């Protein structure tokens, strides 16, 4: 159960997080974008998690309880949106592609350079226009609530390099394959196979961001061969692992020094 805290409204924010550092669970009165200018962020809710590397931003609608988790040293930028702008974005937490233009506008908006209210609003409009032009990224990993599924998913996460079948996993936790299959569909809206692919892609995004090769990432995430990994990654992320990794080099370019607020 998440701890409910109501944060007062704030202007754009910068938070520097260490590896595996987590924020308290909280909620904001306005929707906001969360952009990792460096590092990778997980956004965790009671319904699951979303992952945002430096070429993605997470959108958190108003009133959504959540917490952040940093993977690697992470420079987290937060941009709040008025209701009219928020209405152009999804009504649920999501991950959106960040273009170079949207990245620069976000960095400018969260910098310490003094700007008029009109200038800040123009930067927000640039960000919104670019984010809404790209499709939502399917990087949501639902969190199973059933205790049997929690035990099963724990095994999957711990043994990702050596994936077992649902039947084999079921024997280890004392549940039948049909029962687990039905529960997965009912509680997550996904089949077990779809959920495990999402989990693998989440892990792959982290490993690729850390600089692991495509081949080694495929092995670490349980794919029998790199081609199958590339196909699955491309279907979900919209680009090949190699192209995604190359895009991170531009997104992770040195940032101007801006102290936390």
From TrEMBL:
Q: Output the SMART domains linked to this UniProt entry.
A: HTH_ARAC (SM00342)
Q: Which PANTHER family match?
A: HTH-TYPE TRANSCRIPTIONAL REGULATOR NIMR
Domain HTH araC/xylS-type residue range list: 150-247
Name of the protein in question:
HTH-type transcriptional regulator RipA
Instruction: State the superkingdom.
Output: Bacteria
UniProt keywords (A-Z) are: DNA-binding, Repressor, Transcription, Transcription regulation
Task: Please list the GO terms describing molecular function.
Answer: DNA-binding transcription factor activity; sequence-specific DNA binding
Identify the PROSITE patterns for this entry: HTH_ARAC_FAMILY_2
Taxonomic lineage is: Bacteria, Bacillati, Actinomycetota, Actinomycetes, Micrococcales
Instruction: Enumerate the InterPro entries for this protein.
Output: Homeodomain-like_sf, HTH_AraC, RmlC-like_jellyroll, RmlC_Cupin_sf
Would the keyword Signal turn up in this protein's UniProt record? no
Q: Does the keyword Repressor apply?
A: yes
